[in-house]
Structure formats: C-alpha cells, structure tokens
C-alpha cells in the first residue's frame, strides 16, 4: 500500500492494476504461466500491457475447445469445465510443465508460479450472470513446497466485456497479493477488491494451503468474506475447509438450524435430531439428497460488539468436531435466508427453531425496510416449499411447555399466525426431551468462565472434552 503525504495527513492509496503488474514484471525472481479458459486471456493481458513481461511470463494459453482442453487436462467425471477440480488440475499440470522444462541448475533463484482461471461469463439471454474459479500455485522460496490460493467468484455485472475486465483486475490482484501480501492473509483478502467495486463481483469461497499458510484457518478466512461484504453467506465442512454453497446445495433438500452455538448444547442436538426425523418423514424429502446446515448469523457474532474471532473459532471447532456443516450468513431475516437457498434448489426446505426465533418472525420491526412490510416478507418466505419445525420452551414460572398451540403473538399478528399454522407450515416438535429444556448456551458459557461444576452434563457427548483439551470459551483447568 503506497502512502501519499498531504500536509499532516497520511492518505492511503491503492496501487493501480498497471502498477501491480509492472512490479511483478520487474521482479527478476517471479516467473510462471497463465492458463485462462472461458473469458479470454484477461489477466495476462494486463502483464503484457504493463511492460517488461518477458521476465515474468513463461507461457500464456487458452484451451477454449473442449476436446483440446480434455486432451491437456483430462476429462472430468461430470463433464463440467467450470469447477474446482478442473482448476486444480490446470494449476498442477502447468506447474509440472514448468518444473519439467526449466531446470533448477539454470534457474536456481526463480520463484515459479502457475495462475489459472476457468470461467463462464454472462449468457446471451442474460439469465445466467456467470461464475468462475480462479487460483494460483506459487513459491516464495525455491527450496520450499508450493503454496496455493483458490477462490470462487460470481459476477454481478450484466455485460460480458465488463466481466472480462473485472476478472483481469482480480487476477492481477491475486498474483500481486500472493507475492507481496502473503504474510497477512486478511489484507491479502481485502486487496482482491483493489480497483474493483463490490457491486461488480462476489467472492463466496476461498481456501489457502501450503507452507506459508500453515497457520491460516480457512474458516476464519470465510468469516472475513462475509465481514468485509464480499459475500452474504459462506460454508465450511467438518474438516474445516471452506465449501462452495452453490455446489453443496444444488438441487438438494435443505434443513437449516439457526443458533449461537456458544457452546452447542444437548438442546441444540435434540432439536437437530427431532427436526431431522420429521423432515425425513416428508414424502418430498429424499434423505440421500438432503443437506443439514447449522447457521450462525453475522449479527449473532457481533452481539457483544466487535466480532471476537477466537470466540467464532471456538464455536466452529465444536460444530466441526460433531461432523456438522456450518454456514455463516449476513441474513438476519429468515425470508432472506430462504431466498438465498432458493437460488440453488427448488426442493423442500425446512427451518428448525425455538419459540424465541419464531416470535421474531412475527415482529414487524424486522420488515420496515420492505415496502410491503411483514406481508411481503411472508409472501417471499412461504411462496417456497417450506416447513418450520418449532422446538418448545419451558416457562420457568408456570412450568408450562410453550408450543404453537399456546404461543402468544402480537394481537395484530394473530390472524396471520393462524393462517401460517393452519396451512401446515408450522409443525411442533413433540418427541422432545423435557429433562433438558432448562439448558441455555449463555448459562453454560457463564459456568465455564466462572469455573463452576456441572456444565459438562449439559453438552453432547465428547463436547466437554474438546472444550477442555483445546481451552475453548475461556476454559481454564481448576487446581484441586
């Protein structure tokens, strides 16, 4: 980042795309290949135009013809070309060629790289805006193994030429960041939008790997994508690696459970098991084609002010240890979450929630930004093939179980609630465990922090052990 002095003020200025490309070109050590499929040779063009590219570019190619592409990189099992496996094959193949054709004896100080993208830009009908995979495989020391950065993008622009230009700028930002910002992955991530407006491009998945990123937690990088406004939803699996939501959710039945999971309790898992059982009993639901998601909203992570990254990773660690898929979203309202899911599937969806969350759905204050208010929100919510599974609440004073039958909503919402319930959209979870309804995450969390006894019994099997072993949520071993 260049700094310009103006009086007593320091003004941060972003290097232009040409400046970035030229700096790479003038570095005598950086040398590699460009393989771009689907949107033209947009990235490498910036390096040619910047000047001095002969010291950087070993080869630039575009295998547009599918047969040529298959002959070079092999045939994909699903016969698709704009995929992560295709991109990784491209990166590896081109890097292998560099190693094969350029000897270390002749080039002992070269830092080799292979940059690749496989992209589908907007179609002629403009119904499909386009998306793509972009990545770089690179060295930071000739004797070190390769590092890799792979990301997925979705175009927002409605003009193919503009999309091509945006892709070219992103490619330069990625290569520049890989070599000059690798010691700070958060800044590297932000730099992807240098000279690009966020309304032109969405980045909804990224993974870092290699020796220089050994200590990078990809789940935290996912959080940065949502936090920085690069996307509205990210997803990671039990192994901690980020996944592409569009790929995971495509044509699937979806059951989502929203919560704080701070930490995950027996109540959370009971809701999960009971709602899953009810969801699988639906005739339209195929268990083999169903994805179950534990969702945490950005607003929940910000509940106590600024996002505590350690706290986020503690929650992620527990959910992953239970073999669950986790999603972080910027959708506070449920109807926006359902709209997002609907981009990828028309199959039946389910939302499992407690009484408090259901009451929020009927709170008009959440819909003031909609011209049609709560009615517009409900139209969007229940236009889809959706079921809501409600987990009961136990009133501590009356010891009464609050269900859909005795739930009290605002008087103005009574008729809407009746319509919602009587149309079979709301289903009570009846086969719940009444012995655990006194358990709340916030109470467990406080007990852990205060060093109280008994919190272990409130959590699913194995969770307390994980908390103790990894010192999660401020746990400290008590001296006897």
Number of domains: 2
Uncertain runs: 1-5
Proportion of helical residues? 25-40%
Proportion of strand residues: 15-25%
Q: How many β-strands, per DSSP?
A: 18
Major β-sheet annotation? 8 strands, mixed
Would you give the CATH topology of the largest domain?
Maf protein
- Level-2 CATH architecture of the largest domain: Alpha-Beta Complex
Query: Outline, from the CA principal axes?
Result: globular
Rg estimate, integer Å: 25 Å
Report the span from N to C terminus. Answer: 53 Å
Mean pLDDT: 90
* Fourth CATH level, the homologous superfamily of the largest domain: CinA-like
Determine and state the CATH class of the largest domain. Answer: Alpha Beta
Count of alpha and pi helical runs? 17
Strand order of the largest sheet: 10-9-13-12-11-14-15-18
InterPro entries: Rossmann-like_a/b/a_fold
Protein name: Nicotinate-nucleotide adenylyltransferase
List the helices and strands and how they pair.
Elements: E1 2-6, E2 9-13, H1 17-25, E3 30-37, H2 42-50, E4 57-61, H3 66-73, H4 84-101, E5 111-120, E6 131-138, E7 147-155, H5 160-180, H6 185-191, E8 201-209, H7 218-227, E9 233-236, E10 242-243, H8 245-249, E11 253-258, H9 266-281, E12 290-297, H10 298-301, H11 309-321, E13 325-329, H12 334-342, E14 349-354, H13 355-361, H14 373-382, E15 386-391, E16 393-394, E17 401-402, H15 414-422, E18 426-428, H16 441-450, H17 463-470
Parallel strand pairs: 3-4, 3-5, 11-12, 11-14, 12-13, 14-15, 15-18
Antiparallel strand pairs: 1-2, 5-6, 6-7, 7-8, 9-10, 9-13, 16-17
Helix pairs in contact: 1-2, 1-5, 2-5, 12-14
């Amino acid at each position: 980042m260049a700094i310009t002095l103006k009086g007593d003020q320091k003004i941060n200025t972003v290097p232009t795309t040409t400046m970035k490309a030229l700096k790479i070109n003038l570095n005598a050590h950086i040398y590699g290949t460009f393989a771009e499929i689907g949107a033209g040779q947009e990235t490498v063009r910036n390096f040619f135009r910047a000047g001095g590219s002969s010291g950087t570019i070993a080869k630039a190619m575009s295998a547009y013809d599918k047969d040529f592409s298959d002959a070079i990189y092999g045939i994909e099992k699903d016969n698709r070309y704009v995929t992560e496996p295709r991109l990784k094959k491209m990166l590896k193949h081109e890097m292998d060629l560099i190693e094969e054709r350029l000897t270390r004896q002749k080039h002992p100080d070269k830092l080799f790289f292979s940059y690749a993208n496989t992209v589908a830009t907007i179609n002629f009908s403009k119904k499909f805006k386009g998306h793509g995979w972009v990545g770089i495989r690179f060295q930071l020391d000739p004797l070190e193994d390769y590092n890799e950065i792979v990301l997925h993008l979705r175009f927002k622009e409605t003009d193919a030429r503009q999309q091509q230009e945006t892709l070219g700028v992103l490619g330069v930002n990625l290569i520049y960041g890989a070599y000059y910002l690798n010691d700070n992955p958060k800044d590297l991530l932000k730099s992807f939008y240098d000279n690009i407006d966020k309304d032109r491009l969405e980045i909804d998945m990224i993974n870092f790997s290699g020796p220089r990123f050994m200590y990078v937690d990809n789940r935290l990088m996912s959080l940065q994508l949502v936090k920085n406004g690069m996307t509205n939803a990210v997803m990671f699996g039990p192994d901690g690696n980020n996944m592409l939501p569009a790929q995971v959710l495509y044509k699937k039945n979806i059951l989502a459970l929203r919560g704080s999971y701070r930490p995950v309790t027996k109540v959370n898992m009971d809701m999960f098991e009971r709602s899953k059982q009810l969801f699988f009993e639906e005739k339209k639901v195929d268990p083999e084609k169903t994805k179950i998601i534990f969702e945490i909203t950005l607003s929940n992570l910000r509940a106590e002010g600024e996002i505590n990254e350690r706290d986020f990773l503690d929650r992620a660690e527990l959910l992953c240890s239970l073999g669950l898929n986790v999603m972080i979203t910027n959708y506070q309202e449920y109807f926006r979450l359902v709209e997002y899911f609907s981009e990828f599937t028309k199959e039946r969806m389910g939302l499992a929630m407690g009484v408090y969350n259901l009451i929020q759905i009927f709170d008009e204050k959440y819909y003031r930004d909609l011209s049609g208010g709560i009615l517009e929100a409900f139209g969007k919510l229940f236009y889809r093939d959706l079921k809501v599974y409600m987990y009961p609440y136990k009133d501590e004073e009356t010891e009464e179980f609050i269900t859909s039958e005795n739930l009290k909503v605002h008087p103005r919402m009574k008729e809407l609630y009746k319509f919602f319930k009587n149309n079979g959209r709301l289903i009570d979870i009846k086969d719940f465990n009444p012995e655990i309804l006194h358990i709340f995450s916030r109470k467990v969390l406080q007990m852990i922090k205060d060093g109280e006894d008994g919190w272990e019994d409130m959590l699913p099997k194995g969770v307390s052990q994980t908390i103790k072993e990894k010192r999660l949520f401020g746990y400290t071993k008590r001296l006897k």
